């Protein structure tokens, strides 16, 4: 079944077409909505076609790590809800959810988007920990890009809670935003035979040869790369995939 599907997708791509009528380099409609949770310090919901995820930011006070006494920290978690796909099961994080979280974390962390120095309260004693939880509502393909967009949008929306007598009052928020300095956009490019596409559907994701997730900054610099899939990617393909990711990042960036 998958072999027939793959052959059909490749045949269509050779004609610059796809199963749902889009062109290979065309995204489905992308929607970003912030402030969707009353209780989170920041939140966002992202839809890419029928794929939908929600992200929330919670902030905690912790002791800094010994090797970075004046740096706050960040942690990203991804929960794949069974209601969003028949392939997801309840229980501890599986390999896929861990990969989704790590790729999103790497794009934000390596870009130095979050100024961790400004998360320091008392050097060596107290710093802020920013925890971003992303949950899937519906998986219709391209969770890599949707989750990365939701996490960053939620962080952009976040404000600090109030602190009284060294205790956090989560019911009352300040107007102080998270110290965000840059805005990386994460784009995943998929390879099928000799063809490339972005924003795959659920069916297209089943039969790709390789993928490359690229996080791109405003000036076009790359801050992270992550290869996936069983097939190898040669140097020429890598540069083509990066160029396509850069071009699409400019389109998605306008939504912010």
Descriptive key words:
256 residues, alpha+beta, Ribosomal Protein S5, domain 2, six-stranded mixed beta sheet, four-stranded antiparallel beta sheet, 12 strands, 26% helix, 35% strand, elongated
CATH superfamily: GHMP Kinase, N-terminal domain
Count of individual domains: 1
Give the rounded overall mean pLDDT: 95
Oligomer: single chain
Residue stretches low in confidence (pLDDT < 50, at least 5 long) are: none
* Percentage of residues in helical conformation: 25-40%
Order of helices and strands: HEEEEHEEHEEEEHEEH
What fraction of residues sit in β-strands? 35-45%
CATH class: Alpha Beta
Task: Report the strand count.
Answer: 12
Number of helices: 5
What CATH architecture label applies? 2-Layer Sandwich
Looking at the structure, the CATH topology is Ribosomal Protein S5, domain 2
Straight-line N-to-C gap:
40 Å
Give the overall shape.
elongated
Helical/strand content category = alpha+beta
Largest sheet: 6 strands, mixed
Structural Rg? 19 Å
């Amino acid at each position: 079944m998958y072999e027939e599907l793959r052959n059909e997708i490749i045949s269509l791509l050779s004609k610059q077409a796809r199963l749902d009528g889009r062109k290979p380099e065309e995204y489905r409609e992308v929607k970003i909505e912030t402030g969707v949770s009353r209780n989170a310090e920041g939140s966002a919901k992202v839809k890419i076609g029928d794929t939908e995820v929600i992200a929330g930011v919670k902030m905690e006070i912790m002791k800094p790590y010994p090797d970075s006494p004046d740096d706050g920290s960040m942690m990203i978690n991804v929960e794949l809800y069974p209601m969003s796909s028949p392939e997801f099961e309840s229980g501890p994080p599986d390999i896929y959810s861990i990969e989704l979280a790590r790729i999103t974390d790497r794009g934000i962390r390596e870009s130095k988007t979050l100024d961790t120095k400004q998360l320091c309260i008392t050097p060596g004693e107290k710093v802020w920990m920013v925890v971003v939880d992303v949950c899937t509502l519906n998986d219709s393909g391209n969770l890599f890009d949707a989750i990365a967009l939701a996490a960053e949008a939620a962080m952009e929306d976040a404000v600090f809670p109030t602190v009284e007598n060294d205790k956090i009052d989560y019911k009352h928020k300040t107007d102080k935003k998270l110290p965000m300095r840059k805005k990386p956009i994460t784009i995943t490019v998929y390879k099928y035979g000799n063809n490339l596409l972005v924003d795959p559907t659920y069916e297209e994701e089943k039969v790709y040869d390789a993928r490359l997730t690229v996080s791109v900054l405003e000036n076009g610099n790359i801050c992270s790369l992550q290869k996936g899939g069983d097939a190898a990617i040669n140097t020429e393909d890598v540069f083509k995939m990066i160029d396509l990711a850069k071009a699409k990042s400019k389109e998605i960036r306008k939504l912010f």
